[in-house]
Description:
The protein is mainly β.
Amino acid sequence: MNSLLALSLILLLLLPLSSISLIHSSAVEDPAYPSGMSFFPLTNVIYTTYVIGTVNITSLNIGNSYLSSGMFFTKGNASLQLNAMIDGKYWAQDVALFHEINNKEFEITMIINLWNLSGPFKILKNNVTTYQGLGVYLYQGPTFNVTLPLNFSLFMNATNNLEFGYCINGKKYVYQVLPYFGNFQIGGLSILGLPNDLEFVWGGPGCGSEVCMSGEMSEEIYYLQQGKLVIPSPVFSVGLDTAESAYGIKVFANFENISSPFACITNGVNSPSVLWPVPPSIIVQSNGSIKHVKLCINGFPLSNQEVEVLVPSANLSSPIPFTTVKELGYTNSNGEITFNISSQSLYIIYYPGNYTLSSAYDISSPLLSHLVSSIKSAYDSLVNFLKSYNFKHALSSSFSRIKYKSQSTSVDYLLLEYIGAFAVGILVSAILAKYKF
């Protein structure tokens, strides 16, 4: 019966799209992306032995999901993925497959995908398959029910072995331990040319599918550095490696405490954006030589932040070319500071930025605009990276042997092990890069 079902589904996928009735037109829907948080430094590489993503869910509704072809896949299922590269050679996924029972109760099935991007697995013998010569480890962990509100975490630990785990309302579980494969690498490119990012994102239930979702939640991600969990920077609103995606939700940053920013997810349209660092707003009110400056981000005042007054000079080592620091100070609890600039008509009020916030400036005169037009902050570089990134360069998760549940039916997609592992697949260029065709 399973063989017959698999054969029937394979034939369905091979039929021309015009002959399939359950087709989803993505052209009329919101754009879909792996939605949540990802950490990818553009200029350096970080190695760590521990990564974790945490979500606090107040409300969640999961609708239909569709394959990349537009064909209906299933209903009421979505994946929450913690993804990281190991030494640029292995793609590790700790996945919670959410199935909606009602608007308060969900069934979660834990899943592991581990890809060997250099070839078949030699150490692992069980739960292993291959695709295009690449090793794929597929493992189904425990299934359990949860109710909202929910505090839920996914973590991976590569200290001695490779551990996959989750936490429910603070209680920790390790559900699979594999041999050591290396440390998690964040930054740089994998051997397939994909970014080695750390992502904690929502998407469809495997096979490169996209899912319609709505809800209210917050997310945080951390990595271990020198024995402490660190909030990463920079952080994006979308994942860079996984092909599963979601629409109907948007992601934005909360800066109420700028030393501990986190992501908020609510109903809306997501787009690739920089969550942090982002430039704050500099509001300047002049009363003659007295300049009242207010620094804020998303309406939150920024206290105890250094602000500088820069004036033209020939000092090329200054933060902005041809300027020197005339005066500096720190904002008060209301995010405000006052400068007396009586001797200079041309000046720049400059915020150098910090861990969470990018640099920003306010220019006194258009005559100075040419001096700063060539300056590109870290924020500008991140935005340009997202604008040029091709999200089709992605790996599709394989959740074979997982029974997807819907309100009226339950289907065991055994064929995913063979053709669904890369429903969209590694982009052709990535495959060509590996085999050097």
